[in-house]
Amino acid sequence: MLSDRARACVRGVSRGAVAGAAGTTALNAVTYADMALRGRPSSSTPEQTVEKLSDVTHVPVPGHGDTRSHRVSGLGPLMGLAAGVGTGALLGLGRSAGWRPGLVAGGTAAALVAMVAGSGPMTLLRVTDPRSWGASDWLSDAVPHAAYGALTAWTLQRLGDD
Question: Is the CB of residue 29 less than 8 Å from the CB of residue 51?
Fold first, then answer.
């Protein structure tokens, strides 16, 4: 049997994961709209990260040729989903511990944590270096993450606390 505190943590993590999933949907919608409007290609960094992670951990992506390539193409976006849902879960856990920022502070925190969760592994694996990004690169990353943060914070607030 779980204690009341443990149940509150589980509820917080669950609500946060739901909010993170909503935020991830917003992030993806803004990203794909930007690609459609500007005619820019999708980023290859998620797939490059999967490849580097496979090399570093010595855990191969199974398959050969197109089959393996398709798996890598699927794993890249799944890592982004995990970062978004995981960030939301972490923020939900924070709420269950009593952290109740307003929408602006909560949205900013959600956006920043999600940016680190998404770009951090890519940076550590040297797939990208944010210090070399231009203004357009930062804008292409910051605007979708701002949408993520806003919707994640709003959803968390609306799901309430008990």
Answer: no
The alpha-helical segments, DSSP class H, found in 1-64 are 4-38, 45-57
Q: What is the mean pLDDT of the chain?
A: 95
Among residues 13, 141, 150, the alpha carbon closest in space to that of 87 is found at 13
CB environment 15-49: b (16+ within 10 A), e (fewer): bbbbbbbbbbebbbebbeeeeeeeeeeebebbbbb
Residue 119 amino acid letter: S
2 confidence band (pLDDT: 50, 70, 90): confident
The answer to whether 145 touches 20, Cβ cutoff 8 Å, is: no
Question: Is 47 in contact with 76 (CB distance < 8 Å)?
Answer: yes
In this structure, what DSSP letter does residue 137 have? H
Residue 79's pLDDT is 95
